[in-house]
Amino acid sequence: MDQHLQAKKLHRDIFKAGSKTYFNSSLFFPKNVRDEVFILYAFVRVADNYVDSVPQDAEGFARFRESYLRGISGEVTGDPVIDSFVELAELRKFDPRWTEAFFNSMEMDLHKKNYNSLQETLEYIYGSAEVIGLFMARIMGLLPEADHAACLLGRSMQYINFIRDIAEDNSLGRRYLPLEDSGLDSLAEGETRSKPEHFLNFMKQQTRRYKEWQKGAETGYALIPRRYRVPIKTAGDMYTWSAKIIEKDPFIVYQRKVKPSRLRIVSSIAVNILRA
Q1: What is the pLDDT of residues 8-30, one digit of tens each?
Q2: Which of 59, 68, 144, 264 is 20 to 30 A from 219 (CA-CA)?
Q3: Mean pLDDT across 128-143
Q4: What tens digit of pLDDT does each residue of 157-178 get?
Q5: Cβ atoms within 10 A of the Cβ of 148, count?
Q6: In the chain, where are the structural domains located?
């Protein structure tokens, strides 16, 4: 297998291991776009893995970021994840500030544990998720008028991840959801079960925020070419499904990670193809 094919397989494998919903939805992009999506998500997943590993690999993250900086300065780093992303960034005219914002949010995971206001959370989300929406918009060749909706889609999906992953984040000593005016001191299960009404009201507020942002994101679907709309809408639908499951029983987040099955994803894709 030549180096180009090895790199493509690596991108695919990293993406597939990191996200069932995104990966299975992305399979329905045309091949040229799909390959670029795989490059993008391999890059962000590798960076994320450094800060999410137990223990965290701060040195590995720093090396990865430094290699990226060498890559954009014109050096071939020899890392197929970084070199492919740098080529993609040049081809699709990514704003370098978006990548810098992404790295800044990932670095926050190395030292910041709790987010105590919505503003703090949104600052993190911009770099961790909204810029991914901007990257995707450029890969699909969307006009700048689609950028706001692309950011909202990234924001809403990230917020559902925060809601869904409360128990996992507790185990890592993290809390992304701000507790302001909730009456809760933490999102530890013992705390929330001792104050069930507070927790239920808190979760209702969080899912309400998600739905507002998702509704705004969906206004941008009309700006996406039909051949690209199915995988984007499917991913959005799956996050909405997760939100509905959590709304029915918010304490489910302590029992399991709410994720759609591959069958549900494929079924949603089929429905969206018929409706496209």
Answers
A1: 999 999 999 988 888 989 999 99
A2: 264
A3: 97
A4: 999 999 999 999 999 999 999 9
A5: 15
A6: 3-275
